[in-house]
């Protein structure tokens, strides 16, 4: 489930409502708190929320003028397949995806489509499930493998960051949050788990990656000195004119 190839011919459909997830309302609130400080730094004209979970987030700190909700099924302002993204190149300022890559047939292609539509220095915000969190262990119990979130396939934050680096994104934020065990009868904000999370952030059930599209190389190269300047630095006896 966790380390399968990225491309698959078949994949389960993702959740369409937070109440389909264990402690879904609490999880939604955690994501909202995590996103707000980053959204205050983003400006522009067009902000796209991908998927119905992203649509249902109450984000009060968005500074981008026009928001658009895109999903594969209703309700949504635009019905679209993320593998065949309908937006023009360099047309969007920021894109938010929440628990989407886990339920995509070809996540590489999805990220390529997102990159294509973003302007230079545009933002891609990804929220997903942490495959190394103990929250996913209950999915191994009989009868739970076909329920959310365990019926998806999960990619590590490091793997996501590698994919983004290949697309020339600069990682602005990469962190874990929302420690939980995803067990109905347990308090999601368990005090013991919260204390452990302070020492081991990898226990967070979710990850957040904020990346910025760069069109210039991220590694500066030294400028080559002109040939005449090099000749002037050479001893006279070594010059060939």
Mean pLDDT rating:
84
Strand order of the largest sheet: 3-2-1-4-5-7-6
CATH topology assignment: Rossmann fold
Shape: globular
Helix/strand class = alpha/beta
SSE pattern, N- to C-terminal: HEHEEEHEHEHEH
In CATH terms, what is the architecture?
3-Layer(aba) Sandwich
Percentage of residues in strands: 15-25%
Q: Biggest sheet, in brief?
A: 7 strands, mixed
For the record, the CATH class is Alpha Beta
Q: What's the gyration radius in Å?
A: 22 Å
Domain Methyltransferase type: 70-126
GO biological process, one term: methylation
Organism: Pseudidiomarina maritima
Pfam families: Methyltransf_11
Description of the molecule:
With 241 residues, the protein is an alpha/beta fold. It has one domain: Rossmann fold (3-Layer(aba) Sandwich), CATH 3.40.50. The chain has helices spanning 24-39, 52-55, 107-117, 157-166, 191-199, 227-233; strands spanning 46-50, 66-71, 78-79, 92-98, 118-129, 169-179, 204-213. Strands 3-2-1-4-5-7-6 form a 7-stranded mixed beta sheet, sandwiched between helices. It is globular. The termini are far apart. The model has no long low-confidence stretch (mean pLDDT 84).
């Amino acid at each position: 489930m966790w380390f399968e190839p990225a491309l698959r011919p078949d994949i389960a459909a993702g959740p369409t409502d937070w109440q389909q997830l264990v402690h879904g309302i609490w999880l939604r609130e955690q994501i909202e708190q995590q996103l707000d400080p980053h959204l205050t730094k983003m400006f522009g004209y067009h902000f796209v929320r991908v998927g119905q979970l992203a649509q249902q987030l109450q984000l009060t700190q968005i500074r981008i003028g026009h928001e658009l909700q895109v999903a594969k099924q209703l309700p949504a302002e635009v019905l679209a397949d993320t593998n065949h993204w309908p937006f023009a190149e360099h047309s969007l300022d920021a894109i938010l995806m929440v628990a989407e890559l886990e339920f995509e047939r070809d996540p590489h292609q999805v990220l390529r489509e997102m990159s294509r539509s973003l302007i230079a220095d545009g933002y891609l915000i990804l929220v997903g499930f942490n495959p190394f969190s103990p929250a996913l262990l209950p999915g191994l119990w009989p009868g739970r493998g076909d329920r959310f979130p365990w019926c998806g396939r999960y990619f590590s934050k490091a793997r996501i960051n590698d994919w983004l680096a290949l697309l020339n994104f600069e990682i602005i934020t990469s962190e874990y949050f929302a420690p939980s065990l995803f067990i109905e009868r347990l308090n999601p904000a368990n005090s013991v788990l919260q204390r452990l999370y302070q020492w081991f952030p990898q226990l967070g059930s979710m990850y957040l990656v904020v990346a910025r599209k760069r069109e210039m190389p991220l590694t500066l190269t030294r400028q080559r000195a002109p040939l005449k300047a090099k000749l002037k630095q050479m001893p006279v006896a070594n010059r060939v004119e």
